[in-house]
Amino acid sequence: MRFELWTRGHAYEVHALRMFGESLVAVPFWKPPSCDTCSIRLSLAEIDSVRVEKDAPGKTIVLTTVLLAVTLYCVALITALSALGGT
Question: Quick check: pTM over 0.85?
């Protein structure tokens, strides 16, 4: 699960969130959850807000389909224009 931590006007996209006493430890989202050396440790007092980022598989499928359709259309258009132009 992906979280967005806000502290001092800066957002961190993280996962592998753990709480130790008065501290919150998390790992940047692009790093593996097991990466202890990359973890970010913040005191609870420093954190302005935490937002859970929900994955939306339906939106991902729609976006992928639209991008694929646009790519195929562009390839077909370039192919047709090349055939007309003789190049």
Answer: no
